[in-house]
Amino acid sequence: MAKLPVPISFNWDQANLEKNWRKHKVHYKEAEEVFLNKPLSIRKDITHSQKENRYAALGTTNNSRELYIVFTIRKGNTLRVISARNQSKKERRLYDKEKAG
What we know:
- By secondary structure, the chain is of the alpha+beta class.
- The protein has helices at residues 14-24, 28-36, 89-100; strands at 9-10, 41-44, 54-60, 66-74, 78-86.
- The radius of gyration is 13 Å and the shape is globular.
């Protein structure tokens, strides 16, 4: 599991803000909540890490919405969210399994 920088800060690209809302109805503040709540599962996204290291996070918002988030860690240890959406059934099963320990 990847280690997140402490303290956590975010750097948002305006196009990604709009895309995540338009396509998946995920507000950027809701996506940020996932990184502050437990449990949080993070894995390196090897498939999409050609130009930069990308990670996938499975977690929940303050309202218990289960999200799948793709992000990168930029200079200054800021998180840049690339995509945020609801977890698929397969991802939810994996997340539930990891929550159970």
